[in-house]
Amino acid sequence: MPAQAARLPRDVIEALDRDGAICLRGAFDPVWIDLAAEGIRRNLEHPTTMFQRFAAEGQGGFYSDLWARRQIPQFERFALESPAAAIAAQCLGVDKVRLLQDTWFVKVPGTPVRTPWHHDNVVLGPFCSIWVALDPIPRDATLEFVRGSHRWDRLFMPASYFDNGNASLPAVEQFYDKYHGRFDLSEKAVFSLVPDIEANRDDYEILGWDLEPGDCLVFHARTLHGSPGNRLTHDTRRMVTRWVDETAVLAPHGGSVVERLAAEGFDVDLAVGSPIRGSLFPLVEPFS
């Protein structure tokens, strides 16, 4: 049974709908923070086939894994029993939600690599992400959002997933190609190139918050977001769950993701244009 989350005030839900991202203070008790932290520790010792290091040699450490709850019981508990599902259901305005993905990110001190501005668009329809801070993360090191960009009604793709100005990261580019495919950015009817937000920050209203352990960010998947490297003296760990409602469907360009998951041995049976279903994407009813 998922843990109950405090009922979110209407103005908070309205802010998410208007701005594309919100910060919820103290939404996750220490027990959930400790559980996620232990899961990450175990996952780093026993990476899955989806494990990635997003940093070149000598560029610090930036790590992540995907759908690791299949092997890490702490992640299974966090995803299905923490307040995450109840928060997602309220934010999506439904009684039940499907867990699309569990993942996490760790940037160690001295990692200059910036996560570029992008959004998540392999699923079309109601789709939100919940990022839970496991460490104190000041405003200048946290995930940022372009306010209202989820309402631009455009699908964006970065020309290069990681900024070549920060480091040469061929492994990351290969990962991005492998799981998202390579698209023709000249096909304007489908994709637009992510604008150079970082070079023109004054042209956008950029949202970001200081975070303490237990705070979480909730955002629409199509809100453009990105984050700086870690120039702090401690790790920045984030536990992430991604949620959809029953109407969300696999995007036309999502076939490559399904193919890759199948190649990695995942039990996944999804078709382009069809709703998200299957054992990899469990249905959670947090208020039943």
TrEMBL record:
Keyword Transport (UniProt): no
GO molecular function: 2-oxoglutarate-dependent dioxygenase activity; iron ion binding
Keyword Oxidoreductase on entry: yes
InterPro entries xrefs: Phytyl_CoA_dOase-like
UniProt entry keywords in alphabetical sequence: Dioxygenase, Oxidoreductase
PANTHER family, A to Z: PHYTANOYL-COA DIOXYGENASE (PTHR20883:SF49), PHYTANOYL-COA DIOXYGENASE DOMAIN CONTAINING 1 (PTHR20883)
Protein name stated in the entry: Phytanoyl-CoA dioxygenase
Species name: Rhodoplanes roseus
